[in-house]
Write a structure and sequence with these properties.
Elements lengths: L8 H21 L6 E6 L8 H13 L2 E7 L4 H8 L6 E5 L8 H15 L3 E5 L2 H14 L3 E8 L4 E6 L4 E6 L5 E5 L15 E5 L28 E5 L9 H11 L2 E4 L1 H5 L20 E5 L5 H4 L7 E6 L6 H4 L2 E4 L2 H11 L1
Parallel strand pairs: 1-2, 1-4, 2-3, 3-9, 4-8, 5-8, 10-11, 10-12, 12-13, 13-14
Antiparallel strand pairs: 5-6, 6-7
């Protein structure tokens, strides 16, 4: 028997656990979560896209393991390409139908991988695919979406541009899973490593009937694509017609450059929509950007002002494009461009 003044040892132990248990539990809950990132691997069936390689670079800046999810019933070559990228810890291979990279098909595959590995970050390049898929994933997980990140400050703090690039916004996410797209032009594409990462099979998402991929048509050109070109020659409404873009095509051929256009030129029907550079078009950051007959509206500057060197040709010395240009030529483009083509 034990008296009330002297409780038995096991009673003392129980009282101690009851007193300290909540504090211990809170202590474990307060422990920081180790960073681990899942990158959506976009591919053409054989190689990983430049946007995904840039997303891998962003993921390595966060620290922790970097997994790449490759979807496709027959994507073995793309899986091999992803496994050789520097910084990748593992490649998850899901035989989910990746035709057209429909959000309704790819999002369930990402959610299945998240349920299996509990990543702290889910990342994709800010391409048409990434912008389409990740918001759906964020909605399914009931977390926020951080779009077009331009730099990473910490595991939960990111920088992005707003108001067509005229202001910089610092965003802190308190969500348990951070979901974001990153601008490929702000992160160097990850290169290949000497060794290959481990490949792990991931659960394939069930077939869906919400949407159906019909077809896609790719424009064929011997020139580099706008997103990957080191040099871009872009024309605006000042060219006055689509036929006059022939001058820019000649210059682009001599410089091995891509040809782009302002929205005004596209809306006027001078060139197709896939030429458009700007806030509602493609975002580019080449080594050299030559703007011909482009005034420099805010929406256009948002798509090209991160270019390393900008050269502009315009008859108006007050054109906004000269405010961001490294080199400016105030001259009639119909005189300047042919002379340049002769000397190149």
């Amino acid at each position: 028997f034990f008296s009330r003044s002297q409780p038995p040892p096991f009673v003392k132990m129980l009282r101690s656990i009851l007193r300290t248990g909540p504090q211990v539990a809170r202590g474990f809950a307060a422990q920081p979560r180790f960073a681990s990132s899942l990158v959506l691997g976009e591919h053409d069936g054989s190689t990983l896209s430049v946007a995904s390689r840039s997303a891998i670079t962003a993921a390595t800046e966060l620290g922790g393991d970097v997994y790449v999810l490759v979807c496709g019933a027959d994507a073995a070559s793309a899986v091999e390409s992803a496994s050789k990228v520097a910084g990748v810890s593992k490649v998850l291979y899901s035989k989910t139908n990746s035709e057209g990279f429909l959000a309704e098909s790819i999002a369930p595959a990402i959610l299945a991988s998240q349920a299996q590995f509990d990543f702290s970050h889910i990342i994709a390049g800010a391409s048409a695919i990434g912008k389409n898929v990740l918001p759906r994933v964020a909605a399914k997980l009931d977390v926020g979406m951080v779009s077009e990140v331009t730099s990473i400050e910490s595991e939960d703090t990111f920088v992005r541009q707003i108001y067509a690039g005229n202001a910089v916004c610092k965003v802190k996410s308190n969500d348990t899973v951070k979901i974001m797209t990153v601008r490929p032009t702000n992160f160097d594409p990850a290169g290949d490593s000497d060794s290959a990462a481990e490949v792990v099979d991931s659960e394939a998402a069930p077939a869906q009937t919400l949407s159906t991929f019909v077809s896609h048509e790719l424009s064929k050109s011997d020139r580099p694509s706008l997103a990957a070109a080191d040099t871009v020659v872009a024309g605006g409404r000042g060219l006055k017609s689509g036929e006059n873009f022939g001058m820019l095509n000649t210059m682009a051929d001599k410089l091995n450059a891509a040809v782009g256009a302002s929205r005004a030129a596209v809306d006027a029907g001078y060139v197709p929509n896939d030429y458009q550079i700007g806030q509602t078009g493609k975002i580019v950051a080449p080594d050299l950007y030559i703007a011909v007959g482009i005034s420099g509206a805010i929406q256009h500057l948002a798509g090209m002002k991160d270019s390393k060197v900008i050269a502009a040709i315009n008859t108006d010395p007050e054109a906004p494009i000269f405010q961001v240009a490294d080199y400016g030529l105030v001259q009639d483009l119909f005189k300047a461009v042919p002379e340049m083509n002769e000397k190149l």
